[in-house]
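Action item from last week, closing it out:
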Amino acid sequence: MPRVLCNLLAALVLSNAGAAQAQNRQPISTSLAECSVIFTELAELGSRRGKDDDTVNAALVSASLFVVEAREQADLEGHTDPYRHIHSEQDRLTEKWDGRFSSLLRLSENKDWIDYCRALGENRGITLP
């Protein structure tokens, strides 16, 4: 198999493992904050692509629900300033997710993250629009 093809295959395998590995390594408050960032990014992408207002607003509402839950979880995890902690995590994660939905190589990983966020939301009693 040509080296370029091997490298592409390895990148695809690693990207699919990324969501599961990150979810296992980070606190739930961070995962919830990441879901907030993901849905914000989806709303911005939808807006840029001319999606209808209902679709964009549903993503923004989802992002808001996740950030509220993230702050509550950060408090349970013992962070002295849950608002500041989650805001800091959102800043860091926004850099990670900025433009990421434009990458075809990350399509599967991005889908895995969205699926994870939906399942996490359901598990936490968050009803997404």
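Closing note: The two ends are 45 Å apart (CA to CA).
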